[in-house]
Amino acid sequence: MSTSTEAPRSGSSATIDLNADLGEGLGNWSMGDDLALLDIVTSANVACGFHAGDPSIMRSVCQAAADRGVAIGAHVAYRDLHGFGRRFIDMEPDVLRDEVLYQIGALETFAQRAGTTVAYCKPHGALYNTIAKHPQQAAAVAEALGEFRPGLPVLGLPGSVWLRAAAEAGLSPVGEAFADRAYTPDGSLVSRREQGSVLHEPDLISERCVAMAKGEPIEDAEGGELVLDARSICVHGDTPGAVGIARSVREALTSSGVTVQPFATPFGS
């Protein structure tokens, strides 16, 4: 997987989006502090019911995001509640296409009720990692999103099969980096099954995010330098101390002269 070779962006002109995975509760069970994170991030990846979330949660998160001017994105996934969408499913492409279209269509209904629209899509978990390298599934997801709205912005790993498939389908690919995840030298995420795959130190995470926003190198899992061509950074909401980490990241970005704003706007805006 290729990474960016562009010159580092200057701190005075750097702009970045902060996104977080939200609405990942189910019924009376909740995960993370959605409202606190919505006061920090600029884009909300809202679970659409297949890996987490339910209709009432989708409605409430969409409304809270709209009230704060936070862009709403569809966090589509494999149909895998028990595994939280983190298990690969070998699906026929047309079935995957329809399941993705079903999810984003449901979220769009609640976004419209909140006075806005779904502004982008970010696949979740195993689906995100699979389509980074799996051409057939990547094409199926791209087809679904193109049927939903031509030109829709989509998040993914820079240089991935997924972003290439999205571009070929007429979507708008946007490179994404992860604040608290370790990277392999080729720009892939280190598997969560491996020790050290998730970072927990707020100062280290914040320093990495400033570097990523400015187009400067970060250290990969093998000690080398890696530059990621990203317009959005994900701050996970399900890790211990997530709100504090997200707040530290945003403060570090703004104090370093980086403008934090959504990469996508609601349809028709």
List descriptors.
TIM Barrel; LamB/YcsF/PxpA-like; 8-stranded parallel β-sheet; alpha/beta; two-stranded antiparallel ribbon; Glyco_hydro/deAcase_b/a-brl; 5-oxoprolinase (ATP-hydrolyzing) activity
CATH architecture: Alpha-Beta Barrel
* Alpha carbon gap, first and last residue: 34 Å
- Average pLDDT across residues? 93
**How many helices in DSSP terms?**
8
| C-alpha geometry | globular
Query: Structural class of the secondary elements?
Result: alpha/beta
CA-based gyration radius: 17 Å
What share of the residues does DSSP label as strand, in percent?
15-25%
Give the % helix: 25-40%
Order of helices and strands: EHEHEHEHHEHEHEEEHE
Largest beta sheet, briefly? 8 strands, parallel
Provide the number of structural domains.
1
What is the name of the CATH superfamily?
Glycoside hydrolase/deacetylase
What oligomeric state is this? Answer: single chain
Give a structural overview.
The chain is α/β, with parallel strands linked by helices and 269 residues long. It has a single domain, classed as Alpha-Beta Barrel (TIM Barrel). 35% of the residues lie in helices and 16% in strands. The chain has eight helices and ten strands. The chain has helices at residues 34-38, 55-68, 93-113, 125-131, 135-148, 161-168, 202-213, 242-255, and strands at 15-22, 43-47, 71-75, 118-121, 153-156, 172-178, 218-219, 225-226, 232-234, 259-260. Strands 1, 2, 3, 4, 5, 6, 9 and 10 form an eight-stranded parallel β-sheet that branches. The protein has a two-stranded antiparallel sheet with strand order 7-8. Helix 2 packs across helix 3 (93-113). 48% of the residues are buried. Residues 2-12 have low confidence and may be disordered. GO terms for molecular function: 5-oxoprolinase (ATP-hydrolyzing) activity; ATP binding. It catalyses: 5-oxo-L-proline + ATP + 2 H2O = L-glutamate + ADP + phosphate + H(+).
